[in-house]
Design goal:
Blueprint (H helix, E strand, L loop, with lengths): L5 E6 L5 H14 L4 E5 L5 H11 L8 H25 L3 E5 L2 H11 L4 H12 L6 E6 L2 H19 L11 H17 L4 E5 L4 H22 L1
Parallel strand pairs: 1-3, 1-4, 2-3, 4-5
Helix pairs in contact: 1-8, 2-3, 3-5, 4-5, 4-7
The chain binds thymidine-5'-diphosphate.
Length: about 220
């Protein structure tokens, strides 16, 4: 059995990942590619409980190291329960956020640095690397504006507030943004940055182009 393709989507809150991951999944399904979609934090029953703790604004005073290790606890569960089994049975896995988020948010935003995140990734995730990471980087202002208004809408509608991160100051997000750019520069083979304030269709086109290229390269290597 050939291992499936492991694709992650990354970006700031409000960068449009969720819309794009759904469109990409539909594109792949139309081509008869078996797809498993998941997300972090969350993606497993245990992960959903960790997600609740992490995103609830009521969780105040969470130490950065606690936040980081909870993200990894969630990820370890998702790898064991969802990602590895799917890849091993030839499924393509589309994952909304992975370790680049921890490097950007906890390493950059919370200023823990990259090293500790990458060390933990080796220990806890067996250094599992995505084959392709699509990094959505519209401007900081556009992302944050969208994320904060979406969060208000969802909180009003469902009574469920996942806005602990959206309450962070712009300086935090500037560090996250910077760290994402650093990761993209460090790993150009894996990370495809999609920058600028593009339309949903334009972003989708760029995503599909990068995925098609990766699928062709994988087929060529078999
Ligand atoms: P997500 O639900 O993907 O938010 P959005 O749809 O707004 O992009 O992720 C929830 C939040 O968790 C988001 O603010 C980023 C944060 N996060 C981290 O800080 N570290 C991590 O390792 C992960 C996976 C997410």
């Amino acid at each position: 059995m050939v291992r499936g393709l492991f694709i992650t989507l990354e970006g700031l809150d409000g960068s449009g990942k969720t819309t794009q991951i759904k469109r990409l999944a539909a594109w792949m399904q139309r081509r008869a590619l078996p797809v498993t979609m998941t997300r972090q934090p969350g993606g497993t029953p245990l992960g959903d409980r960790i997600r609740e703790i992490l995103l609830d604004p009521v969780s105040t005073g969470v130490a950065p190291l606690t936040e980081m290790t909870l993200m990894f606890a969630d990820r370890a569960q998702c790898i064991a329960q969802v990602i590895r089994p799917a890849l091993e049975t030839g499924q393509c896995v589309l994952c909304d956020r992975f370790t680049d988020s921890t490097e950007a948010y906890q390493g950059g935003g919370r200023e823990l640095g990259s090293e500790v995140v990458l060390d933990l990734h080796r220990l806890v995730c067996g250094n599992l690397q995505p084959d392709l990471t699509l990094l959505l980087l519209p401007s900081l202002e556009v992302s944050l504006g969208r994320a904060r208004s979406r969060n208000r809408r969802v909180a009003e509608k469902t009574g469920q507030d996942e806005g602990r991160f959206e309450q962070e100051q712009d300086a935090f997000y500037r560090r996250v943004w910077q760290k994402y750019r650093e990761i993209a520069a460090r790993e150009p083979e894996r990370v495809v940055p999609i920058e600028g304030n593009l339309s949903v269709d334009e972003v989708h086109e760029q995503i599909v182009e990068a995925v098609a290229e990766k699928l062709l390269a994988m087929a060529g290597n078999q």
